[in-house]
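Intended use. Records like the one below are meant for learning the mapping from a protein sequence to its folded structure. Do not use them to infer anything beyond what is encoded.
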Amino acid sequence: MKISLNPSVLSTPLDLEALLAKAAEFGYEGADIGLEQIVALNPADPVSAGLALFEKHGVYPSAWGLPLDFRNMESDQGYQASIAEFPRWAKLAADLGCPRMITWLMPALPDPDLFRRVAGARLKRAAGIAGEYGVRIGLEWVAPYTSRQGEGLKPFIWRMDQMLEWIEEMGEDNLGLLVDSWHWYHQDGTVEELETINKQQVVHVHINDAPDRPKQTLGDGTDRVMPGEGVIDLLGFLRALKKIGYEDYLSPEILNPEIRNNLPDDEAMARAVANTRRLLAQI
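Structure written out for the chain above:
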């Protein structure tokens, strides 16, 4: 498995070239970036510009954010505009050598049945287009108790088995999972459960850790800690991924403003990759 730089560890955003340079400096093999960043390099020839930049730094894209407006249940306008452009994005992802797109789903919604039906149809259509270019789409379930609370919200999908069920309903072979150790922990996931999926179902992986506090008190965007510095069974998590044959990227996603605001960016990048590599060496 390879390690990808996730911008969540940075207090100050970097432009694409600076991000890739930092990733190379600290020994990352990849970076989590967006397709729009590649287009901005050279709108007339983004493929050549992107490939040249990756070769220059020896750092490659791990996964692209899904460029699709599928969440708005009030209007179809944004979705129709984004699906019209989607073939161009899918082709660009493939031409850049990274046929992986990722997105996330909220675990509680005002109308889960409506979202399941409408967003499911939108994602299915996008997956059909992406499949024509050999591109896979990874869907991330969000599990923390605190993310499932709120007035007027009803449970949607917050466990891996629920996401797999929805993917099966959509019926596109190139739809899979973005597996995050944080959400696996918060759903009380097991190593055995991870071992039941196959590597083709795993599009991308986020790795992080949790402090030794009651799960129901932890915020999704505030309390994650560096891999290996908390209580998640990350060795079991990684051994399961290794057992199913996963060989793509691990991205340390550390959503924690205390770390971001108090730890110098260079130190954060160095610590995230060193901790992750230390865990990999033990499996």
